[in-house]
Amino acid sequence: MAGPRAIQIPASVENLAEVRAFVRDCVGEFGGSKRVADDLVQAVDEATCNVMLHGYKSKPGDIDIEASLRDRKIEIRILDRATTFDPTAAEPRDPARRPAPTRIGGMGLGIELLRGLTDEVHHSVRPDGGNELTLVRSMDRPTQEE
Amino acid sequence: MPMTIDVEQHGGNPPVTCVALTGELDASNYEQVIDVVRNAYADGARRLVLDLENLTFMASSGLFALHSAVRIMGGETPPDPEEGWSALHQMSMDEDAPASNLRLAAAQEPIARVLERTGMLRVFALDATRADAIATLQGA
Fold first, then answer.
1. What are the CA-CA distances from residue B39 to residues A47, B18, B33, B45, B69 (Å)?
2. Measured between alpha carbons, how far is A78 from A114 in angstroms, rounded to an integer?
3. What's the pTM value of the predicted model, to 2 decimals?
4. Chain A closest CA to B72's CA: distance in Å?
5. Are strands A120-125 and A131-138 parallel, antiparallel or unpaired?
């Protein structure tokens, strides 16, 4: 059984590629399918980008990303020291309305993608300041098509 | 992996500009796509194919870039990413009518899925190949 893994990156959009490579690598090591990797790579990219642009507001800071496997569920935690920012508070888009990508990393399509690509999204404020966002994706969930 | 952008003019009548994206399109490089399309439009391009065959990842910032490309090709000023909601909510594109002079081509499965999942296929027409997209734009 592969153990938990973690990386720390400076909060800059230049580092999103490294985050994606880390997630893809972890999912592979945990034995997840390409589809699970694709979904989690997309979700973690969106969530991490949100932290950079809305949590740290493009100012310097660190982001820790931890990946672990438990009961055939991959759990990814994104930890920061930024001001409180809860992406799960965004209202879902009305599917009848035409899509409108909002500002980059804004609470628009990125959040919608996050919800659709994972089984669970949890936000909490860390006791000593900062945010903790947890994304959970089952390795066994059947392919979801909308 | 950085993204590269190749622009190619496809002759014929009418001419079609092909913009091929290779690599990963994310928040660090989406503005390059907007700049390339803006320059192509300024240089007279009026029919454009965005070839996604070698694009392996697209974040929501990439969707924003494609959306801006549609507006540029429609002769509109694309929204300023910093202005956000208010600018984008003034979109004047026709309901349920994809852009007529810009087509996407050859999206890989994960990218096609993102486009579908976010409802963006109502804004963009997606063809299986670049040749199909060119043929459609030339009225073949």
1. 31, 13, 10, 9, 11
2. 13
3. 0.88
4. 15
5. antiparallel
Residue A146 lies in a domain: no
* Number of domains, chain A: 1
Set of chain B residues whose Cβ sits within 8 Å of the Cβ of A49 = 26-27, 59-61
CB contacts of A46 in chain B (<8 Å) are 59-60
Residue A81, domain member (yes or no): yes
Range of the domain at A76: 5-138
Q: Which of residues 7-36 of A touch B (CB under 8 A)?
A: 13-14, 16-17, 20
Q: Is the pLDDT of residue B81 over 70?
A: no
A20-39 residue pLDDT tens:
999 999 999 999 999 999 99
Q: Domain for residue A143, yes or no?
A: no
Asked if the Cβ–Cβ distance from A104 to B30 is below 8 Å, we say yes
Q: What CATH architecture is B4-137? A: 2-Layer Sandwich (3.30)
Give pLDDT tens digits for B24-70: 999 999 999 999 999 999 999 999 999 999 999 999 899 889 989 99
The model's confidence at residue A107, banded by pLDDT at 50, 70 and 90, is very low
* Interface check B89 vs A, CB under 8 A: yes
In the DSSP assignment, the letter for residue B82 is T
- Domain-embedded: residue A144: no
Note whether B26 contacts A16, CB cutoff 8 Å. yes
CATH number of residue A47's parent domain: 3.30.565.10
Select from A106, A105, A111, A11 the least CA-distant residue to A56: A11
**Where in chain B are the domains?**
4-137
